[in-house]
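quick one if you have a minute, typing this from the bus. theres a chain ive been looking at and ive put its sequence and its fold in token form underneath. please have a look and point out which stretches look like helix strand or loop to you. anything you notice is useful, everything is just below.

***
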Amino acid sequence: MMCFLNWLYTVLNRMGINFANFVLDKNERIKAQKYCYLLNKFLNLPINGAFSLYINGPYNSKLADILYEITRCNNLSTVHLDSNVENIINIIINIFPYNKENVVNELEIFTTYDFLCNNYPNLTDSQRMSELFQLKGHLTGYSEFISNLNQIEQAFI
């Protein structure tokens, strides 16, 4: 388990997650969950439990436990990441840069959309968008981003 914690700590640090702010900053926790959701698309992370839709999009309570464990560990160190993992990190942070204004909302919208695509494959595009607006209707002002969800999804295939 310690090897995975070091690895995940390294990856999330590389993506801009600041574990010093993790406990007190809800946005930091949301970003970490969503980045892990995206990492899981490529790498099938060894995390028990599954993602399910929650208030801020896909959420995994077992992952939350792991992320809090990282904040409690004083002896974590960074590890070497292979080029495949570096490439995946670059894809994610190029689309969802850590310091971009409103990245939390974009991550929430995209990962919810992706969750709907993967878990409800029989929905039409129109039904999927309707469900997305029902779930994330409080996030107004993202119509241009939402209109590009299919293109963003292609970057992760």
